Amino acid sequence: MNNDHLVNMCNQIGTFFESMTDRDQALEDFAKHIKNFWAPSMRHQILSQIEQGEATELSQIATDALAKHRALLQ
Known about the structure:
Blueprint: H1 3-18, H2 23-37, H3 40-51, H4 60-68, H5 70-73
């Protein structure tokens, strides 16, 4: 799966969770969604993109959720 596609998918998911009033719950729910519905290889790839500075178009909620709940996603 190409890098842009994963970033776009994260941003779309983030748009949904952005509407939640409880930011901490939104970040946790975002991460749980990624854990439950993305293949381990996809999770690894997006985390690697972030580490390497390649996910520059990632939304703030996606960035925050993936950073805060990284351990859940590995």
